[in-house]
Design brief:
The structure holds 2 protein chains of 2 kinds.
Chain A: H1 13-42, E1 45-47, E2 53-55, H2 60-64, H3 68-100, H4 104-119, H5 122-133, H6 138-145, H7 157-182, H8 185-193, H9 198-209, H10 211-226, H11 230-235, H12 243-252, H13 257-292
Antiparallel strand pairs in A: 1-2
Chain B: H1 16-39, H2 56-62, H3 65-98, H4 104-116, H5 119-133, H6 147-169, H7 174-182, H8 187-216, H9 219-224, H10 232-242, H11 246-278
Helix pairs in contact in B: 2-11, 3-6, 3-8, 3-10, 4-6, 6-8, 7-8, 8-11, 10-11
The chains are: A mainly alpha, B mainly alpha.
Chain lengths: 293, 279
């Protein structure tokens, strides 16, 4: 890449440069940077009338987030996302392990097995869960048949967690698989030869080696789970609201755009901080590997 | 290896507990979807018990004008958004691959932002933008009334196309372009005749990706759409809110079939592309 011409000068590159650069630049500025900047500005504003907003530079909207009601929702969102990630990790790790040690054909099938639902529309997947978990769904039919009786599942926090796990499992399995697949198998053999059992090999050899992959999996599951809108909206009840639901309410029903804008930016900052942390970690790790090689 | 051979120490995939685990995970992932599709063929209004096979619900869908309208809207939006996304995504990829310029890192970062920003944030940003900064006229003739939705879709789709095209550009041999230039082609001509054929497979898979994402999108559309413009996912959402009915099952099955089919085609094309590189 070092021989890439610069935009200024180079091999008559200037005209071609502007020809290729102008359209994407204009688009991203007009329809992404400006919309985001507008709500960023609104987050420091105050609602005057129905549609009028004065940007006063106030920090009140951010301060309001510290009110117990909203703080609780933030804590709950983080808790839901963390619980989802933990369950996905527990459920997904053995699956990724099976995938790693399967035959070439088996790998493809197991990969397809986890990806096919992932490609299905999110709304459709959520609806499928609604049908299964509702009062007349099979789970309740089965519970009644064995004599336990029907349990209200839909529109509870339980349903939200199930839905979040259902949706985010592929996000966790894929990075786990890619980490496990790169691992040197002779290390497992060595551990087994030296007398360790399978379980202790798993905890003392495999998991420490694939730890970076586990961290990526955690972030890749946690970030989208934190911003979920549809799952808590359709599967949850009145007390399962997450950040996204509160943001939606400010913009649609409550009509308090400045506060909604502040909430969205807090969610965005959280996401970006996690992303940057991940990028820094990846880079540091790549450098460490380079030095080791 | 015969099936009956002894399980080796590393044959974890053939150990019973792990196989059971995989089975349970797959059942958890698939049973809800399978039953959703199955009950869209069930000859009963109440969707609990199997009463016999019927395609009535699909026939009913085909006769539902508002649903068909939403479906046509979705396809139109996806088609236009795909065309724009492929052009913008490819231009972005070429600029980032070919040129060094002040602010390149910043541009690269901003371009990837639509991929990582939570959907809800982008949705509300678009709501505010089209609501107060750049009001999109509500009463335009079709398909111009879909303009706001199309613009938002292009914004979140083209960075993905850019990622796909960039990956393909990495394998381009710069000497080919230089040879074309030495033979007298202008720079634009060289890009068009030499570079573009090389990235064509990425353009196709990028286009399929953009089309699928646009067709699938609910959250951003939900915030951008005016009261009179409805897309297929938004329509399904409004049906889902009311209750679980065989019609919703049928509509969901249609959407599921289309997106999975498109993705599988995309993956196969990409697989062929990889195979032709290796072979």
């Amino acid at each position: 890449m070092s021989d890439a011409p610069t935009a200024l000068g180079g091999r008559g590159g200037s005209r071609t440069f502007w020809l290729t650069f102008s359209a994407p630049l204009v688009w991203i500025v007009a329809f992404f940077v400006i919309p985001l900047s507008v709500i960023w500005a609104y987050s420091f504003g105050r609602t005057l009338g129905l549609t009028e907003i004065a940007i006063t530079g106030t920090l009140d909207n951010y301060a309001r987030v510290a009110e117990p009601v909203y703080l609780l929702i933030f804590v709950k969102s983080v808790w839901f996302a963390a619980l989802t990630t933990a369950i996905c990790l527990l459920v997904g790790f053995p699956y990724a392990l099976a995938m790693t040690f399967a035959s070439a054909r088996g790998k493809i099938w197991l990969l397809l097995g986890i990806m096919l639902p992932f490609w299905t529309n999110l709304l459709v997947r959520t609806y499928a869960l609604m049908a299964v978990m509702r009062n007349e769904g099979y789970i309740n039919d089965a519970l009644e048949a064995v004599g336990i009786g029907r349990v209200e599942m839909l529109h509870t926090n339980f349903a939200v967690i199930v839905g979040l796990v259902y949706v985010h499992l592929p996000f966790i399995v894929l990075p786990l698989y890619s980490a496990l697949d790169r691992m040197d198998r002779s290390l497992i053999e060595a551990s087994l030869d030296l007398g360790a059992g399978h379980i202790s090999t798993l905890f003392r050899v495999v998991i420490p080696i694939v730890k970076p992959g586990i961290y990526s999996a955690i972030l890749l599951g946690f970030i989208p789970a934190l911003g979920s809108y549809l799952t808590p909206d359709l599967l949850g009840g009145p007390d399962s609201q997450m950040i996204a639901s509160v943001i939606e309410r400010q913009f649609k029903r409550a009509n308090d755009w400045p506060f909604g804008a502040a909430l969205s930016f807090i969610l965005m900052y959280l996401t970006l901080i996690l992303m940057v942390a991940m990028a820094i970690r990846d880079r540091r790790q790549a450098r460490a590997q380079e030095q080791a090689a | 290896m015969s099936k009956k051979s002894e399980i080796g120490p590393l044959d974890y995939a053939r150990r019973l507990p792990l196989q059971l685990w995989v089975g349970v995970v797959l059942a958890f992932m698939y049973l809800p979807l399978i039953s959703l599709v199955a009950f869209s063929f069930n000859d009963s209004r109440r969707t609990i018990h199997w009463e016999g096979f019927t395609t009535d619900w699909f026939v009913k869908l085909a006769g539902d004008d508002s649903l068909i309208e939403a479906f046509v809207n979705s396809l139109t939006i996806a088609l236009i958004a795909t065309i724009f996304s492929v052009v913008l995504g490819t231009l972005t990829a070429i600029v980032l691959w070919r040129f060094r310029f002040p602010g390149r890192g910043l541009f690269d970062g901003v371009i990837t932002l639509p991929i990582v920003v939570p959907e809800i944030c982008m949705g509300v940003a678009m709501l505010v933008f089209f609501g107060s900064v750049f009001p999109w006229p509500r009463d335009l003739p079709w398909p111009f009334d879909l303009g706001a939705i199309i613009i938002s879709h292009i914004t979140f789709c083209f960075p993905f196309v850019c990622v796909v095209v960039r990956a393909r550009l990495a394998s381009f041999n710069r000497e080919m372009e230089e040879a074309a230039r030495d033979l007298g082609a202008s720079e634009v001509r060289a890009l068009w005749d030499v570079l573009l054929p090389h990235v064509r497979p990425a353009l196709i898979s990028g286009a399929l990706l953009a089309f699928t994402m646009s067709l699938d999108d609910f959250v951003i559309t939900f915030f951008t759409a005016g009261p009179n413009t409805v897309t297929f996912p938004v329509k399904i959402y409004s049906m889902v809110r009311f209750s679980v009915t065989p019609e919703v099952n049928a509509a969901s099955s249609v959407l599921m079939l289309i997106t999975v089919l498109l993705t599988v085609i995309g993956i196969r094309l990409q697989g062929k592309d990889v195979a032709s590189l290796e072979g």
